[in-house]
Write a structure and sequence with these properties.
By secondary structure, this protein is mostly beta strands. It contains three helices and eleven strands. The chain has an eight-stranded antiparallel barrel. Strand 2 (57-61) and strand 3 (64-68) form a beta hairpin. It is elongated, with a radius of gyration of 28 Å.
Length: 218
């Protein structure tokens, strides 16, 4: 009988010693600190689709037309493999596009059907890095800041329909690109949210001054 009581006691001590260990192998301390309760963490993979505010327009006058597409941007972000300080560094890629067009119709001035067109297309291709500080990163919302480093391409082209003209041109200058930005994001569900970003950059046509859009986390 004494041996049976001793065996039961040993089993009870063993169970008590292991009761505090979680099934998934993570310790309780990390869970108490809120691991996994942030909208950007070590498992985040995010696609952002955005549009620049007040970046598109259309103006028509006698014999002339000016138009601009909105500034469109697409980016991807995932966390750096290791946590850096009191937060996570998100790294990824960025692509932006905008086009502007000016067209002049000779018909309005000279009575013929000829016109010429000038088009400017702006492309931004860059790496993206944003820091997500835990203090500003909750389960549904966050504030972050970062930089874009890459290249900026301004494609200029000219064309006309005048049969007596032999003039046409296409220029594709390339220049380095760097910009800083701050942003905020809010999730309506675990995977779908909205974001707003404010950027500071050297090229007025190549990036957003203010951009809003949708974030998809997977």
């Amino acid at each position: 009988m004494k041996k049976l009581i001793a065996i039961i006691g040993l089993l009870g001590l063993s169970f008590s010693a292991n009761a505090g260990e979680p099934i998934n192998g993570k310790n309780n301390l990390s869970l108490a600190q809120g691991d996994g309760a942030k909208c950007f963490n070590e498992n985040s993979h995010i696609i952002n689709v955005g549009i620049g505010l007040a970046s598109g327009y259309y103006v028509k006058t006698r014999g002339e037309k000016y138009s601009s597409s909105p500034y469109l941007n697409l980016s991807y972000e995932q966390p750096w493999p290791k946590k850096l300080g009191p937060g996570f560094l998100g790294v990824g890629a960025y692509f932006g596009y905008k086009t502007e067009k000016y067209q002049r119709n000779y018909n309005a001035f000279y009575g013929n059907g000829y016109y010429y067109e000038r088009r400017y297309s702006y492309y931004t291709i860059a790496g993206r890095a944003a820091y997500h500080w835990d203090v500003l990163n909750s389960e549904k919302a966050e504030v972050y800041g970062g930089v874009l480093i890459g290249g900026y391409i301004n494609v200029y082209s000219y064309s006309d329909n005048d049969p007596n003209s032999d003039y046409s041109v296409s220029v594709n200058p390339f220049s380095p690109y760097i910009a800083a930005f701050v942003g905020a994001r809010y999730y309506f569900t675990d995977n779908i949210g909205v974001f707003a970003e404010l950027g500071v950059h050297p090229h007025s046509h190549s990036s957003y001054n203010a951009s809003v859009g949708c974030s998809i986390k997977f």
